[in-house]
Design brief:
alpha+beta; single chain; two-stranded antiparallel ribbon; 4 helices; 160 residues
Amino acid sequence: MDINNIKETDIPTTAEELKAYEEKFGSSTQTVGGVDNRFDVTEEKCFKPENAQADEAMKEKVIEQLKTIYDPELPVDIYNLGLIYEVDCWKNPVTKLSDCKVTMTLTSATCSMSEVIVDLVRSIPSRMDGLEALDVELVFDPPWSQEKMSDEAKLAMGLL
């Protein structure tokens, strides 16, 4: 997204883009459970039927999208940072589109950028064909630790 030519229909994917969006269009924040839902694609929770077929191809596409979302305070994407615990995608037997659930954590329960990070994850369906809905489950058990980081992330942060 070109932050100099941002449109109201654009979906910010970084903290910088979100800031530019809010400066241009204002912060009409709507929160649900303390999480900004302006860019939600659906308000309903994904329901995984018992007979739902796994969608590994969509899971890989969602993981690629997660790798484009960076923690605004660190030089590492949230996937390699180890914030993503599980990505579960399945075919919705009614719509034949995919639904996904991302189980994730934050580096700290008091993370100042938590709303931005979760909002960016929740906005993934707006950037992908074939993905109808994506739920985010935010958990703090087990807590995040540096051991969850990929070697690539550790190298980027000077830990290797």
